[in-house]
Amino acid sequence: MNTRKAYDKWSEQYDSNVNRTRDLEAMALRQVLEEKHFSSALEIGCGTGKNTQWLVNRTETLVAADLSEEMLAKAREKLAGYHVEFHQADINMPWDFTDQCFDLVTFSLVLEHIENLDFIFQQAGNRLKTGGMIYLGELHPFKQYSGSKARFETEEGQTIVPCFTHNISDFTESAKKYGFEIKDIQEFFDNEDRTSIPRILVMTFILLE
């Protein structure tokens, strides 16, 4: 099952099933960005709106995109009455769903499903203002090394969403190619247990040129 179809199916239970990765990444985004306010933001992989609901109060203009139309339907329902511009989009293709330039681009649990990071950082750079920030919150590669993947259960059995393993250096090298400077790297752990394998990797980058 391809990524779009998998998330279309997952949308039926995404908000209600037990998902420590989803919940910890949401906490991480709030912690990392809590002191900031942006005039404009582009949320890549908005899903059912778990972070959109928080971001909408911290930016004047919010554009949110996702591959799955069914996930977007959930997000639109949650954000009814808020000024959010939603788009169905495949970010492996040129980002022509918007012509705006933004102060912030966020990726939440998205890039494990993307093979070519260079293209993503190139497109993000095209959509950021100079000095703009990327927030990236992903399943930690250490978790992937141990076999963890995006997955969910249905009556038909377990569905594993197609994914790729990216090392930390893969992110940093792709970012540097397209004019980004690493601002911060943080790791988030289940139950704040720093003796365990970190679950979420958060990286922030600033566009220099």
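[next item in queue]
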Amino acid sequence: MSKLSIIIPTKNEEKNIVRLLKSIDPKLAEVILVDNFSTDKTVKLATPYLNKLFLAGPERSAQRNFGAKKASGDYLLFLDADMALSKNLIEKCLNATSEKKTIWAIKEKSIGRSFWGKALALERNCYIDQDYIIAARFFSKKDFLKIGGYDPNLPAGEDWDLTQRFINKGYRIQIINTPIIHHESTDSILNLLKKEYYYIKNIQKYAKKHPNAFKNQSSIIYRIKIWLKCWEELIKYPLLTLVFLFYKFLVWLMFLSHSYLFSKTKR
């Protein structure tokens, strides 16, 4: 039996998937891809690197849960196609498994190539050590299946939800400092806002399930405090900082508008 299984949900990820798979040492992990019926070359490009390939949907939570049930490893690491592993990350994960009743988050270092990708990466890197924002992605398979895996009824916030359910059961979350590299590949503010709107319109289910956690995670004041702690890094890139602040302002306007309309429809 493999010690570790890596599970990757995909849909039309031909631009990203090979970079991720090349970063994984096949001698150290079973690699499972669960593809949501991609119409591009994702499956063709990925196949040479995989131990197991499945076609399943309808959303990433269901894909992850499906992959977990098919995994032969004692431990599960869930990755997204736009990521890549740092050297020795798998070893660091496996070395941490002596801790019982523990789930593991992994620091993420964001990298952007386009202008908007760089602006988003600058913001995301401020959150690298933030307990309320970081979510676990490495689990004991036994514990993961026992708790029920990701909630397929949550289109957004499913990673926070799973982390909160473990914490509510008395598990502790440990952070692995060797980072995952997260490639921010967006090329326009319009694409960013479309993605954010998808999360905004679907986050209410998570907010109702974990109101206290969501209050902290969505707090404007909390985010501003984080940015102020990162001021030395932010002032190195004044234009990118102004751009991501403008972008976050638009996101909050969308969030407040949607929350207002959502509350009106519930009356």
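[queue empty]
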